[in-house]
């Protein structure tokens, strides 16, 4: 059983920069935890502290129940795959994959067997005699993974392993890594700034901002129930639309008033946001994902609408994205709506985009916390 745990871990660099602040989290045996957040949020620093490549300022890190703060990297039983592959240019694929085994003094025959098994798993057997400069970026990434696999580590640490690949190859390699994850079932911490990658790769996803853990949950829960406005805006692609609103009572009905538009909050919506009661007649930040709208722009009974003027249209084949100027009295709030490719709209068109009120999210305008 190999788990990894962070206990009150902080990292302060010599110049006073706080890269990680009081980070506590447990990664279960066999789990893939994804650390995600914008560049400079501290996720790679966390990974490097687990690997032993970065000193810990405060707190403890456990691997397999053992405190590893002062253990050198080679004694931690982990394998790390870097963003830039870190292959030796003068060694062929076979030598690169088996290099760590050679350092450990593994006999040649056993080393060759392990290398062969690793490259077969990654489907790169035909590349064994080639140098890194003679293979593609995706193949180099497979070689880097092969080098990690043959070590039979207790845990994998992957630091943005797909970021140097082009978009098409990134999708292909993501699928390969998913298959590999299921096959190996090894405890893994995976760092990325790409939230799509995070949502597809992780058993759980930890969202980090400025070194502080914002939320850790399964991908579906992160998407459906973000704990604050930062998580809501970071998780989901394209990002959630946000707009200021004022809650008003009208008899037994409650409206979110935006500009001169009134959005009726039905019982289901109010029941799913019980803390809205204390915010009624107050101001909130409302959120709607681009995919929350009817893709044909045809309203159903009880739907609410966002009205706006089309600024431009992104045509992506499977979907169109309408970029609207909405709520004209609030200096034309940019608004993104995903629609069917058969839904024809052009620049300058007036649009009423229907949605269910239950798809709304609400946040405190002062703290950013979900309401």
Please give a handful of descriptors for the protein shown:
371 residues; alpha+beta; Rossmann fold; OB fold (Dihydrolipoamide Acetyltransferase, E2P); 6-stranded mixed β-sheet; 5-stranded antiparallel β-sheet; 9 helices; 19 strands
Q: How do the helices and strands line up, and which of them pair or pack?
A:
Elements lengths: L3 E9 L5 E10 L4 E5 L6 H9 L6 E6 L2 E2 L10 E4 L11 H11 L4 H14 L15 H13 L5 E5 L7 H18 L2 E6 L2 H7 L2 E6 L2 E6 L1 H6 L4 H6 L6 E10 L2 E6 L2 E5 L1 H6 L10 E6 L15 E12 L4 E7 L6 E7 L10 E6 L5 E3 L8
Parallel strand pairs: 3-8, 3-9, 6-7, 7-8
Antiparallel strand pairs: 1-2, 1-4, 4-5, 9-10, 11-12, 11-14, 12-13, 14-19, 15-16, 15-18, 16-17
Helix pairs in contact: 2-3, 2-4, 3-4
Strand content: 25-35%
Let me know the average pLDDT. Answer: 91
CATH class of the largest domain: Alpha Beta
- Please state the CA-atom Rg, rounded to the nearest Å: 25 Å
Silhouette: elongated
Integer tally of domains: 2
Distance between the termini: 39 Å
Descriptive report:
The protein has 371 residues and is of the alpha+beta class. It has two domains: 4-234, P-loop containing nucleotide triphosphate hydrolases (Rossmann fold, 3-Layer(aba) Sandwich), CATH 3.40.50; 241-363, Beta Barrel (OB fold (Dihydrolipoamide Acetyltransferase, E2P)), CATH 2.40.50. Helices cover 24% and strands 33% of the residues. It contains nine helices and 19 strands. The chain has helices at residues 43-51, 93-103, 108-121, 137-149, 167-184, 195-201, 219-224, 229-234, 267-272, and strands at residues 4-12, 18-27, 32-36, 58-63, 66-67, 78-81, 155-159, 187-192, 204-209, 212-217, 241-250, 253-258, 261-265, 283-288, 304-315, 320-326, 333-339, 350-355, 361-363. The strands form four sheets. Strands 6-7-8-3-9-10 form a six-stranded mixed sheet, with helices on both faces. The longest helix is centred in the middle third of the chain and has 18 residues, at 167-184. It is elongated, with a radius of gyration of 25 Å. It starts with a strand and ends in an 8-residue tail after the last strand. The relative contact order is 0.11. The mean pLDDT is 91.
